[in-house]
Design brief:
Elements lengths: L24 H10 L27 H9 L8 H14 L10 H12 L5 E4 L4 H9 L3 E4 L20 H11 L4 E5 L14 H17 L1
Length: 215
C-alpha cells in the first residue's frame, strides 16, 4: 500500500507580502450596517479575508511578474498580441480573435449582437453581469436549475446542472427562433460555485439541436 506523502509546507515561496488589517467583530458589524450589507460597497481595507469573488488572485507567480516586465505594450502590432492570437486560435479553432480587457466587456459586445427585444437566453444560472448585459438589450434571461438544487441541505454531486426537462419545455414555449443562446455557467457561480457535469452539457447540446431541427 502506497504511503501517503505528508506536506510539511506550501510548495512555493512568497515573493511579496502585503499587510492586512485584522478587524474586530464590532468593527465588521458596523461597516456592514453602514454599507447596507452590500459587500460591493465595503472598503477593501476593512476586509481581512476577501471571499467576494473567485476572479483574479491576490498573489501573482514569478512568471506573471516576469511577463509584465517583458510585455510589449505597443498601441498596435504588439508582439505579445501575436502570441495571444496564435494560442487562442490553436485552442479554439476560431479564425478571428477580438481581445477585450475583461469578461464583462466581452459580454457587452457579445450580447449586444445576440440579444435584443423578443430574444430569450436560457441558462443553469446567469451570472449577475451576464444577466445585466442581456437585459440591457431588452432580452429575457431565464434560469433553469433543477428544483432539488435549490435545497441547501441536499448533497448532490452536480448541483449546478441545467434542468433538461425545463429546457425542452421553454424552448418550445418561447419558440426556437427566439432562443438567442443556451448558456452554461461553469462552475455555477450564482448558486455557490456548484459543479456542472460534462454529461449534462452534452445532453443540453443534444436537446437544443434536436428541438431546433424539428421546429
Amino acid at each position: 500500500m502506497e504511503k501517503k506523502r505528508r506536506t510539511l509546507a506550501e510548495p512555493f515561496r512568497i515573493k511579496m507580502v502585503e499587510p492586512l488589517k485584522v478587524t474586530t467583530q464590532e468593527h465588521r458589524t458596523k461597516v456592514l450596517e453602514q454599507c447596507g450589507y452590500n459587500p460591493f460597497l465595503l472598503h477593501s481595507s476593512d476586509v481581512f479575508i476577501d471571499l467576494l469573488t473567485d476572479s483574479g488572485t491576490g498573489a501573482m507567480s514569478d512568471h506573471q511578474w516576469a511577463g509584465m516586465m517583458v510585455g510589449d505594450a505597443s498601441y498596435a502590432g504588439a508582439r505579445r498580441w501575436f502570441h495571444l492570437e496564435s494560442v487562442v486560435k490553436e485552442l479554439t479553432g476560431m479564425p478571428h480573435i477580438l481581445p477585450t480587457h475583461q469578461g464583462r466587456a466581452a459580454e457587452r459586445i457579445l450580447y449586444g449582437i445576440l440579444g435584443g427585444k423578443n430574444k430569450v437566453f436560457l441558462s443553469n444560472t446567469h451570472f449577475d453581469t451576464t444577466r445585466a448585459n442581456i437585459e440591457f438589450t431588452g432580452a429575457l434571461a431565464v434560469d433553469i436549475m433543477p428544483e432539488e438544487a435549490n435545497d441547501p441541505e441536499k448533497d448532490l454531486p452536480f448541483k449546478g446542472n441545467i434542468d433538461l426537462e425545463k429546457l425542452k419545455v421553454l424552448i418550445l414555449e418561447y419558440k426556437a427562433e427566439n432562443i438567442a443562446a443556451v448558456i452554461m455557467t461553469v462552475t455555477n457561480n450564482s448558486s455557490g460555485g456548484q459543479p456542472v457535469s460534462m454529461q449534462n452539457i452534452l445532453e443540453v447540446r443534444k436537446s437544443v439541436i434536436n428541438i431546433s431541427c424539428c421546429w
